[in-house]
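Is this the right way to post structure tokens for a design question? Let me know if I should format differently. Anyway, here goes:
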């Protein structure tokens, strides 16, 4: 069956590129982001929107996917789809329909089940007509949807080894940052100082010689993502000290979104937050490449000392430039009781 639609042609080409990869497809595969963006474009093409005046209640492909277990006979649905939908619904790291849809795509790719929602929506003509315009969509078009479904079947032959935990920025971008998980020894002083910006705990400074600074594990600009398995997306000041207090005496399990890619480039959503803090992302990038004796593909730049005064703490923006939800005060994370 020939592919005549330009978007499907592009998607087919990307499927072939991924199939030709010798190793498993991981988060930083050079074709993965374009593949994901193209796939999302197919899901969105011809998606019907309710006739609201100001664009309120805008729907996305996730809305019809999450409805499938309720609309269709649950007993006839493949458990892999039910698991994918419930996992995304219960995830605290994504807040928007866009983020949930993207997490579903990643989860379903890893479990070879992305073809299932497209197959199931075609078993219910009323549901299909409600969500998709047959004249402008791919999924709502009888011929094009068959081609698309065959390409989704092809993705089952690809090994996607994706870190599903690395999902906290899917609301904002398809670009996947570097993600690290650490186990620190029980201690009263991690040596990191946080600012809370746009619902994220951003590392504003790291004390030289601290537990967190060892081997540059935690660096200025990193975002705390999980603490003891609890998502920190949307965290408020006081929540982190409370979690440390609840787990006092135990090793500290911490997951972070790294500020920089292996190339040294700052992850764009973090770069936006650093500018609010008064930190120039380009200086961090330059600093990484200028550290003597450090290979360019490593995440290394000197930790910032709050007490020694050897490195200046970034100057905060004026009050009129601060967002209502931002808490730019640098809060030390130094003991279970927050003192």
């Amino acid at each position: 069956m020939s592919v005549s639609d330009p978007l499907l042609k592009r998607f087919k080409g990307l499927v072939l590129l991924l199939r030709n990869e010798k190793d498993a497809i991981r988060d930083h595969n050079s074709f993965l982001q374009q593949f994901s963006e193209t796939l999302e474009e197919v899901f969105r093409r011809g998606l019907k929107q309710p006739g609201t005046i100001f664009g309120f209640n805008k729907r996305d492909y996730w809305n019809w996917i999450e409805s499938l277990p309720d609309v269709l006979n649950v007993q006839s649905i493949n458990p892999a789809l039910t698991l994918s939908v419930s996992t995304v619904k219960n995830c605290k790291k994504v807040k928007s329909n866009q983020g949930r849809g993207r997490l579903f795509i990643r989860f379903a790719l890893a479990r070879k089940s992305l073809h299932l929602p497209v197959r199931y929506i075609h078993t219910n003509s009323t549901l299909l007509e409600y969500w998709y315009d047959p004249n402008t969509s791919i999924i709502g078009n009888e011929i094009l949807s068959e081609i698309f479904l065959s390409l989704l079947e092809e993705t089952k032959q690809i090994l996607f080894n994706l870190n599903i935990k690395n999902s906290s920025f899917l609301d904002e971008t398809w670009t996947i940052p570097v993600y690290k998980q650490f186990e620190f020894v029980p201690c009263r002083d991690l040596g990191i100082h946080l600012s809370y910006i746009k619902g994220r705990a951003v590392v504003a400074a790291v004390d030289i010689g601290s537990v967190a600074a060892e081997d540059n594990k935690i660096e200025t600009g990193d975002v705390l993502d999980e603490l003891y398995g609890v998502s920190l997306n949307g965290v408020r000041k006081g929540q982190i000290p409370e979690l440390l207090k609840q787990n006092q005496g135990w090793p500290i399990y911490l997951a972070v979104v790294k500020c920089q890619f292996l190339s040294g480039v700052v992850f764009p959503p973090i770069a936006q937050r650093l500018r609010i803090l008064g930190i120039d992302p380009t200086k961090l990038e330059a600093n990484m490449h200028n550290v003597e004796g450090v290979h360019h593909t490593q995440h290394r730049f000197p930790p910032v000392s709050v007490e020694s005064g050897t490195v200046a703490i970034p100057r905060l923006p004026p009050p009129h430039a601060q967002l209502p939800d931002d808490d730019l005060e640098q809060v030390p994370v130094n003991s279970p009781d927050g003192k």
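Format looks fine. Someone answered above. Worth noting: Residues 6-19 form the longest helix (14 residues). The CA atoms of residues 244 and 336 lie 5 Å apart.
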